[in-house]
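Lab meeting, item 3. Inverse folding demo.
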């Protein structure tokens, strides 16, 4: 995997997944003349940057210019991508996904960019001998990855960490169908704007993925700033289901929080 990655942004990389940018900053910036005078200075401080999935200055096309720590967003190994199913190759080095999920306390955050479950407890993804610890899972609507150009209505990302420069993200699509048990339990608790919901209720994480673990694999990046190219992507071929009512309600909360697909460039996608 290419590592166009600046180590000084390590902490940003992970906090950016966990926390949102500060929306109040934008208001301050646009009304405070002093801030304008120090724009070069503020460009180096990514914590104060407002980014979004909308079109315009804060949107995906311009993420790479928003601050020095986001230059990877203009890199050549970015995510998400479109999977062209008739070009996907087999690889002998891939192995079955060994997902060892147990349970987690309920800790749901709407950070202004996504609805995210912060997980606790001993939940891992084992790839060969390498252990990746589940940190959180969050959702996008529509899906970020596409399959032969098709967007599923929702995609969930299970974010696992081995080290600061080595993440594995498991992507699973949702299609319209039966009611989804996780959404049945929690959709009414999702904060509709920035906010948090916690309870003592335990979530059985082993029920959150399909039985068939066939996947597409490629090397890519975080799909939100700082877009660090540190992610091994495993996107399952088999989608989960959610009812139309659930998808409609959830999509409204997520509000088109997907990054458009990025060029594959010289990378290859492998199937298992
Ligand atoms: Zn994501």
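The presenter then showed the designed sequence:
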């Amino acid at each position: 995997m290419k590592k166009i990655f600046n180590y000084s942004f390590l902490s940003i990389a992970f906090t950016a997944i966990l926390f949102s940018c500060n929306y109040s900053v934008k208001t301050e910036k646009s009304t405070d003349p002093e801030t304008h005078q120090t724009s070069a200075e503020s460009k180096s401080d990514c914590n104060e940057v407002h980014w979004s999935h909308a079109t315009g200055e804060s949107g995906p096309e311009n993420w790479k210019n928003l601050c020095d720590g986001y230059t990877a967003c203009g890199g050549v190994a970015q995510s998400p991508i479109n999977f062209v199913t008739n070009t996907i190759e087999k690889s002998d080095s891939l192995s079955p996904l060994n997902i060892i999920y147990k349970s987690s306390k309920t800790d749901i955050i709407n950070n202004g960019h996504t609805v995210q479950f912060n997980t606790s407890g001993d939940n891992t993804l084992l790839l060969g001998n390498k252990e990746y610890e589940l940190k959180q899972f969050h959702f996008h609507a529509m899906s970020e990855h596409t399959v032969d150009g098709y967007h599923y209505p929702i995609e969930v990302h299970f974010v696992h960490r081995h080290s600061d420069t080595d993440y594995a993200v498991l992507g699973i699509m949702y299609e319209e169908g039966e009611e989804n048990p996780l959404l049945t339990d929690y959709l009414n608790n999702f904060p509709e704007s920035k906010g948090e919901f916690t309870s003592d209720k335990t979530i059985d994480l082993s029920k959150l993925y399909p039985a068939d673990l066939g996947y597409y694999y490629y090397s890519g990046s975080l799909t939100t700033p700082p877009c660090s190219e540190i992610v091994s992507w495993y996107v399952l071929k088999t989608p989960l289901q959610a009812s139309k009512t659930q998808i409609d309600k959830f999509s409204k909360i997520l509000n088109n929080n997907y990054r458009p697909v990025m060029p594959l460039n010289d990378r290859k996608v492998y199937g298992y």
